[in-house]
Structures are given as C-alpha cells and as structure tokens.
Amino acid sequence: LCQHLVQNLNGLIERSQAGKLLDTFSNHGIILKRESPPESIISPTIIDYSIPYQSYLDYFFAIKASEEISKSQSKALPDLLKNRDDWNVFILTATSLLNDHNILIGEKGYWTKDFEKREIERLKLEALCNASDEVIKSYLPKLKETFQNSITDRNVILSKFVIPNLHRKELNLGVEIVHNTLIEFPDTYSR
Questions:
Q1: Residue 54's pLDDT band (boundaries 50, 70, 90)?
Q2: Nearest to residue 140, comparing CAs of 168, 109, 114?
Q3: Facing residues of 35 across strands?
Q4: How confident is the model at residue 22 (pLDDT cuts 50, 70, 90)?
Q5: Is the distance from CB of 191 to CB of 185 less than 8 angstroms?
Q6: What is the mean pLDDT of the chain?
Q7: What is the spatial distance between Cα 173 and Cα 137, in angstroms, rounded to a whole number?
Q8: Which of 21, 97, 117, 151 could form a disulfide bond with 103, CB atoms 3.0-4.6 angstroms apart?
Q9: How far apart are CA 181 and CA 136, in angstroms?
Q10: Is 35 helix (H, G, I), strand (E, B) or coil?
Q11: CA-to-CA distance for 9 and 6, rounded, in angstroms?
Q12: CB neighbour list of residue 156: distance below 8 Å, 6 or more residues apart
C-alpha cells in the first residue's frame, strides 16, 4: 500500500513517509489497520488496511432509528435495528434518543420488550455517559437510588458511569453519588 501511495502521488512522498502517513491515519481511526502473524519466523508481519465505514453506517442507522422512534412514539426497537448484532448502533441510538429527544431507554417502556434488564441498564448508562451535564443532573437522583440498591448495582454505577465521567468537574460525581451515599451508612461495615 505504501508503494501504491508513492506511485499515485507521483513521488510527492517517499515510501517511509507513506508508512508514517498510514500509521497516523490508523491511529486516528481514519483507516483500520490489521496485523496478521507471519506464516513463519522469518516472514514479515502481514498488514492489511481497510476503511472503517461500519461506524458511519451505525451512526446513520442510529439517526434514522431515533427519528423514527420520536415520530412514531413506538416503544419497540425499530425494524431497522432488529437484525443488527453490533452494540455500537444500539448505544448510538440510545444516546441520540436521550440527547435529541429526551427519551431514556428503559423508561416508559422503551425497548423493554426487546432487551433483558441488564442490557437495558447497560444502554442507559452508555447513553448517560454521552449526555450533556444538564441531562445527567436531571438523572442524578435516579442514579443515586440505583447506587444504593445493592453492592452489584453500586459497582456497575461506579465502573460504568461515575469513573468514566470523573473528568466532568461541574458534576462532581465523586461527591454527589459516591461520598454522599456512602456517608449515609451508619458504619463502615454497612457500606
């Protein structure tokens, strides 16, 4: 591929520059790089490049599905997504529904017949992680309530929501969810 780049760019770049260019593109997700182990010890590693069109398709599916849900007010998973097995499109759709239409998956029956409870919770937390601070603030009481339910729920909220969002200084999640909830326990053993 490096040689093709050099030839197609009529010598504007050298082969080593073409390799660095491909590495930069793959490091930034513009192209996908896959390295296959060599067939023998002395053979070079085989490197394949491809275009990451799947994420763009997922994004377009998510936009179309969220618009369909918003317009129809259907609580079921749209037909457009029913045969998909990639979670990325579900996460993108859940995020789009929350950010653009104020619909959180699992609430008011959205997608509850299409996914197990654990999967719904995963989609909720993924969507909330990608939501604005204002949206998250409106869901903090529910998140605190879930955090208090059980050790399992506490660990899930902590690992899937609080820790990934600690960089959001305005939300102060460490204090709002973790500290304020744990301080309410009468002793260390209860926590």
A1: low
A2: 168
A3: 47
A4: confident
A5: yes
A6: 85
A7: 10
A8: 97
A9: 17
A10: strand
A11: 5
A12: 121, 125
> In DSSP terms, which residues pair with 123 in a beta bridge?
none
Task: Name the CA dihedral angle for 156, 181, 186, 190, rounded to a multiple of 10 degrees.
Answer: 0
**Residue 132 contacts residue 97 (beta carbons within 8 Å):** no
Helix (H) or strand (E) holding 33: strand 32-36
**pLDDT at res. 188:** 76
* Tens digit of each residue's pLDDT (9 = 90 or more) over 60-107: 888 999 999 999 999 999 999 998 877 888 988 999 999 999 999 999
Residue 53, CB-side half-sphere exposure with 13 Å CA sphere: 2
Query: Per-residue pLDDT tens for 114-133?
Result: 999 999 999 999 999 888 88
Nearest to residue 106, comparing CAs of 116, 118, 120? 120
Q: Which two tokens stand for residue 54?
A: 């799947």
- DSSP assignment, residue 84? -
Q: What is the chain's length? A: 191
Q: H helices within 9-164, ranges in order?
A: 15-27, 53-72, 79-82, 87-101, 117-129, 133-149, 151-157
In the chain, the amino acid numbered 106 is G
Rg (CA), the chain: 23
One-letter amino acid for residue 117 of the chain? K
Tokens, residue 131: 């939501």
User: Which element (helix H / strand E) includes 32?
Assistant: strand 32-36
